[in-house]
Task: structure prediction
Amino acid sequence: MNVFHQLESTPEKEIFGGWFGRMIHGENMTISYFRAKAGSILPRHSHPHEQISTVLEGELELTIGEETRICRLGDVAVIPSNVEHQARALTDVRVMDVFAPVREDYR
Amino acid sequence: MNVFHQLESTPEKEIFGGWFGRMIHGENMTISYFRAKAGSILPRHSHPHEQISTVLEGELELTIGEETRICRLGDVAVIPSNVEHQARALTDVRVMDVFAPVREDYR
Result:
């Protein structure tokens, strides 16, 4: 397995309209660096993977289950397995998501 | 489980001399936001947890197994389970590490 990675040489994939991510996969985790323009919506969905999201830049409206918060730099959300969530970029945003286990659908 | 977290209200722990981290634990992952001053060394060690490290600020000399690289913003390292690694802060650094499974020793 490749140990050292550079994000700028990792190809970017549009995983949903307006959400562009660079993904790096380990054995047990996938880490994804996303960007989206203001107004981009990631509709309500769920997956068996646990997810931890960290906002790196901008304002992200995040709904997890029935709770909605506006998240900014320094905010971290832990989304349990199979819990429905959605996101809306209130500004241009950069968000780092980690998933366990690996997101095979992101390969 | 608490879903929304703010790093600034998460207590900081010194996990080794000069390495200060704020840790958030999920079910299957721990995410740690570390800072260290220039010159701080994290000696060679290993653990069963897979680790993915992302440099957020500064220059980090990272040795994984027998390979050494200087990592900066945009560099990501995937450290497999039980592989020895060490780190040296060449400048003041901020690094984000994720571990799977949870680092029970960081609770």
